[in-house]
Specification:
The complex is a heterodimer of chains A (108) and B (115).
Chain A lengths: L2 E3 L3 E5 L4 E8 L5 E7 L6 E6 L3 E5 L2 E6 L4 E6 L8 E8 L4 E3 L3 E6 L1
Parallel strand pairs in A: 2-11
Antiparallel strand pairs in A: 1-3, 3-8, 4-5, 4-9, 6-7, 7-8, 9-10, 9-11
Chain B lengths: L3 E4 L2 E4 L5 E7 L5 E7 L5 E7 L6 E2 L6 E4 L5 E6 L8 E8 L10 E2 L3 E5 L1
Parallel strand pairs in B: 2-11
Antiparallel strand pairs in B: 1-3, 3-8, 4-5, 4-9, 5-6, 7-8, 9-10, 9-11
The chains are: A mainly beta (108), B mainly beta (115).
């Protein structure tokens, strides 16, 4: 089976940097990905890592350490529109399993 | 390009009634998934399909059935709805091969209430 752990809530001010950690257990590993979901909306893909290291996509970066079964999503230059839930997801060959999500609240 | 389309968007059922949720994708994706989302519990996988004519159970399959007769469609059925099935249901799809294999495209969701 698969399991993922991530913090439930994070609060930060506009312009700050937030790091959301994710630890996982899986029987087979094909990648760790991150999704954003605004209230009432559908999850949308942000970033993924299949290999160790940092992937940068604009203000968002994602990091993976397969030996530690650990990854994180880094949100830089926080904006009010970044207030949302963020989910990490791990893929075995066929299935993607999600963490419970981290609610990020950005304050002015 | 519509992506993933779910119907209906909202439905209210009485306990014991049956219904089917339809998911259609126009991206020629091999893999399709049904998740349910409840407050504080993230997305839990109900059933999935790795291709036309195939289905498999996820982590919470009880009370649901699925079919994938055509590559573009993935149906989720509730034979006898229960209040515990009140949830938001999301369909998602992805291609088989990298780099898109880790990228799920989600539908807008179907909000189901069972009274």
């Amino acid at each position: 089976g698969q399991s993922l752990e991530q913090p439930s809530e994070v609060t930060a001010v506009e312009g700050a940097i937030v790091q959301i950690n994710c630890t996982y257990q899986t029987s087979g590993f094909y990648g760790l990905s991150w999704y954003q979901q605004h209230d009432g909306g559908a999850p949308t893909f942000l970033s993924y890592n299949a290999l160790d290291g940092l992937e940068e996509t604009g203000r968002f970066s994602s990091f993976l350490s397969r030996s530690d079964s650990y990854g994180y999503l880094l949100l830089q230059e926080l904006q009010m529109k970044d207030s949302a839930s963020y989910f990490c997801a791990v893929r075995d060959r066929d299935k993607l399993s999600f963490g419970a999500g981290t609610t990020v609240t950005v304050r002015a | 390009n519509a992506g993933v389309t779910q119907t209906p968007k909202f439905r209210v059922l009485k306990t014991g009634q049956s219904m089917t949720l339809l998911c259609a994708q126009d991206m020629n994706h091999e893999y399709m998934y049904w998740y349910r989302q409840d407050p504080g519990m993230g997305l839990r996988l109900i059933h999935y399909s790795v291709g036309e004519g195939t289905t498999a159970k996820g982590e919470v399959p009880d009370g649901y059935n699925v079919s994938r007769l055509k590559k573009q469609n993935f149906l989720l059925g509730l034979e006898s709805a229960a209040p515990s099935q009140t949830s938001v249901y999301f369909c998602a799809s992805r291609p088989q091969s990298p780099p898109g294999a880790n990228v799920l495209t989600f539908g807008a969701g179907s909000r189901l209430t069972v009274l």
